[in-house]
Request: fold
Amino acid sequence: MNEHINYQHAPAHQKLLACHLAGQAVKPPLGSSLESEFSNIIDYRYSCWPFVVSPSLQRGFSDIIEGVHDVFYNALSLYFESDAQAFADYFEVPAITYEFLQDNQFDTSQVIARYDIIMQDGKGKILEVNAGTNLGGWEFDIVADEVIANAHSFDKSIRLSYPYVIQSLFRHTERVLEEKNGLSGCANILFIAPEFTDNRLQQMWLNQQVHSCGLNGTFKLLFCDSPAQLREQDGFIYSGKNKIDVIFWPEMQKRSDFVLQILKSQLAGNIIFFDSPVCTLLGHKVMLALLHEEKVLSQLNEKQRQFVIEHVPWTVKLNREEVMFNQESWQLRKLLMQKRTELVVKKSNSFQGEHVHVGSSSSPAEWETLIDGLLGSNDWIAQQFVSADPITAVNNDSEVLDYKPVWGSFDFGGRYRGNIIRAVEAEMSDGAINGANDALCFLVCEQRKTTKKLVI
Reply:
């Protein structure tokens, strides 16, 4: 167990580790009673024991999320200067996306995201961003109660809380509706999601989350398979006779003819659409490359420039010929060859660790072949590799081991809303940390404050 790096652990976590090291904990049965009903959604390994995060680390994540939106959207203004076609070419999206972005005045209240962050020497580094309702990680809500109960089973004095992601999302949705439309009372929330449409238990579970999160008004949840079941009328979107207030479309078909109708309704202020191309722009990995463009860095104010340097690893698009790296000018190919073990290349629009190649895990010959095939690509990036500070956690065999984690920090409208952890054992090679590498996931809990009763 790594004794000297413990800034990420709360006191309750140290207590949990000590209990396991002393052999006092009994291994609980693994698997939630709901898990089998959500087997089409939960497709990763998770520990039956929680990780309890330190308050100071939570504040660090919160600071990153509160500062990131202004930096991202300022970079868009500085680099593209209202040139919609340059924007479209850079991100490989329709030019109209930039027009919608400008018309919305960089409104971030409808942005929901999960930042994949690695802690290195105590500093958070943003590896990539997953934006929109397909961000993943909320699945832990399904098993959270049982994982927390496991920790309470051996020491009831450990008081833990968990920021249920779906409940946080519903509460944020209500805030956006109230701020944008002054909406109160009942709102119709539509899920365009086939995985929920035919599963009554999953629908019931989502409705239970609505009832558990203490809304001022009420939400009516509706479900459909595709936008073909919707219609537009007078700028509003309808499902049957129900006028829709919010759409969740996790697997949005970007080329669907109906997307434009929803975007027009969103622009008119008639609907909340977290999955619009505008709201999900942060999920393009080339956004991180944009932050390191010289044209952007030279014009950011000092606070924002320091934010990029401290929290965003050096990133560049592979269609560049010359780049700046550590304040030195390089031919990109020469840099990629000579600094192989310090770099990773990724496809801009890919998920779950696909299309990620770590230089240190590739032979020089493999790397050269890969790079020569990708140089000039507009949708691939190179990024400086970041090695994670280890944490100590408990696996499903009640073994206390050191892990290298990626933190998944949730951002709802610029507010920090908890974490998930994906981790591999620290003794494994420095490769990508994701489901493809059979990473183990941990429920991230917070230690609740206890109040001492005054006895007279």
